[in-house]
Write a structure and sequence with these properties.
Layout (H helix, E strand, L loop, with lengths): L1 H23 L10 H4 L1 E8 L8 E11 L5 E9 L4 E10 L7 E5 L13 E8 L5 E5 L6 E5 L6 H13 L8 E2 L4
Antiparallel strand pairs: 1-2, 1-8, 1-9, 2-3, 3-4, 4-5, 5-6, 6-7, 7-8
GO molecular function: lipid binding
Pfam families: Lipocalin_2 (PF08212)
InterPro entries: Calycin (IPR012674), Lipocalin_ApoD (IPR022271), Lipocalin_bac (IPR002446), Lipocalin_Blc-like_dom (IPR047202), Lipocln_cytosolic_FA-bd_dom (IPR000566)
Length: 181
Amino acid sequence: MRRIQRCLAIALFCACPLATLADDRPLTTIAALDLPSYMGTWYEIARYPNRFQKQCAGFTRADYSLMPDGQVRVINRCRLQSGETEIAIGTARQLGGARSPKFEVSFAPAWISLIPAVWGDYWVIDFDEQHRLVAVSEPRREYLWILSRTPQVERQSYEALLERLSRKGFDLGKLMVTRQK
């Protein structure tokens, strides 16, 4: 009996690192981001399901604009099942230098923004060559958004992005395509 238990323990020990390999690799971002050209409207094409968007039925977009203090105004919109539009207004601040693709974003009231827990990571991890399709996530890969400058994307560009995300360790089976019509 002890031998069986020992064999099971060894098998589990050996199997676990292989099962979590993709999640343990550090997440890489794009090399640099031209912040002014990133501003504007981005349409959500797909995302990992998350608690703060579960009421969204589709037609989701984000509008980014630079504020005088260098931070970014974030206005997220989505359509609810009722047909109404829900709007969330937040602030993003760039981490690192002026070309850093790493941000923190918060949708909490300004008076509570001193508390680190209200800020979430927003990392630009992929940007296609035409700067029309982008993937955003955070270090643990719990969240993922695919955004586009247009509500629909070319299938070839989307599939190429999915392939790159797969190589970065993302579970594409978790992606939920955003309703656009």
